[in-house]
User: Fold this.
Amino acid sequence: MNGPGIRPVAAEFVGSALLCTVVVGSGAAAEQLSADAGVALLINALATVMGLGVLIVVFAPISGAHFNPIVTIADVVLGERPARGLLVYLPAQIVGCVAGAALANLMFEHPPLEFATADRATPAHLLAEVVAASGLVFVIFALLRLDRASVIPVAVASYIGAAYFFTSSTSFANPAITIGRMFSDTFAGIAPASVPWYVGAQLVGCVLAVLLVRALVVDRRTEAAKHPVRP
Assistant:
């Protein structure tokens, strides 16, 4: 079975880059616009929600609009995509997010790549990342199995917007974004020492979500194929 073609991989790179640009750029803007941390977080969250929704709508028909290694991993484990897709999607997502961070840095007169200094790895934050990542993956694949893929852009953007505020980590929920944000010493940055912990917590969340999807959600697409409606 052949892996993804050049267009889906390029779309994952571009979409990941733009998503990280939105997250980092809005964080840098928020830092300049308000000294109040709550207002800054609101600016960052609103921009991310709107940007993420648009990017999913645009890129979903091309690549599936993953922009996130744990989504791709879950896609493979749940049988939606061949395993060799991991070899090209994951690097495209990670490199795309680093490129997006560099672009955002340049727009706000920072060096293109700089290490962040915000240490975020506490037990509470890591628990929050497990919750954020598992919820994100569960929402996507529960809706997919329920044959509700058309609402995924709104559902995912809404979930991430909510998770900015109900998780103590502000819901990174994405290893590629986490790595990209390591290279921006702005409101959205994360210190390199915190990154492995966050990525580990996100992978744990991915495993939990896959188990929940398998245990709780019947694939209606399969059921419909077994029992087609006859005229």
